[in-house]
Amino acid sequence: MTAHPTAHEPGPVAAARSRYVRDFSIAMAVYVVAVFSVVLILRTQQPEGPLLWALAVPPSLPLLRVIQVVARHVLDLDEYQRALQIRRMLAALAVTMGLCSVWGFAEAFADAPHIELYLVFPLFCGLWGFSCLFIRKAQ
Amino acid sequence: MKNRLRVLRAERAWSQADLAAHLGVSRQTVNAIEVEKYDPSLPLAFKIARLFALPIERIFSDDDAVASAAE
């Protein structure tokens, strides 16, 4: 007989999960504050020139951090959950790239309304979540 | 692949969460293996075999092994 099961102690899986929730929450909170601050500056200060480029940085950095945290989280999952999430990500990636490519041509050729590129990441995340309804096997 | 994980776990009166903790994986992974929705990696299969002190082929058997045993 082996040692007593340790199901209720935080194992590596649970520890990775709480680290993910913490890091994700911090990055998203910083992102929200950055977006509102930049929008406020744009509305009240009418900045010009290089300052406009500088204003693109504060919302970008926490978003890059979110991408890093999510990638780390997927890599930290155990083998089954990682395989499952990677299949879902692949499906979301395929649909995202498909939609963006088709819409890109529609914009270029048919004057379709422009869609901002920063919406691609939330589109991917939404499709990733949606794929969970359909992709329930890891192999 | 077929496996006897559920039986072996029941013999020890472990929950899926107990077994998951022993193996260092999530409970979802133990469940996916038990319902034969997922075949574990070779390292995880060895870990399971070591935990139950059985050779791997006493726990897991592929369809060919099942077929040849029936002959």
Give a verbal description of the structure.
The complex is a heterodimer of chains A (about 140) and B (about 70). Chain A contains five helices and no strands. Chain A has about 140 residues and is an all-alpha fold. Chain A folds into two domains: about 1-75; about 80-139, no CATH class. The model of chain A is unreliable at about 1-5 (pLDDT under 50). Chain B has a single domain, classed as 434 Repressor (Amino-terminal Domain) (Orthogonal Bundle), CATH 1.10.260. In chain B, strands 1-2 form a two-stranded antiparallel sheet. The longest helix of chain B is centred in the middle third of the chain and has 11 residues, at about 40-50. The radius of gyration of chain B is 12 Å and the shape is globular. The interface of A and B includes residues 6 and 7 of A.
Gyration radius of chain B (Cα, Å) is 12 Å
Distance between the termini of chain B: 18 Å
Envelope shape of chain B: globular
Could you please say which CATH topology of chain B applies here?
Answer: 434 Repressor (Amino-terminal Domain)
Give the helix/strand layout.
The complex is a heterodimer of chains A (139) and B (71).
Chain A: H1 12-45, H2 50-55, H3 57-76, H4 79-110, H5 120-131
Helix pairs in contact in A: 1-3, 4-5
Chain B: E1 2-3, H1 5-11, H2 16-23, H3 27-34, H4 42-52, H5 56-59, E2 60-61, H6 63-70
Antiparallel strand pairs in B: 1-2
Q: In a few lines, what is going on in this structure?
A:
With 139 residues, chain A is an all-alpha fold. Chain A is built from five helices and no strands.
List keywords for this structure.
heterodimer; A: 139 residues; mainly alpha; 5 helices; disordered N terminus; B: mainly alpha; 434 Repressor (Amino-terminal Domain); globular
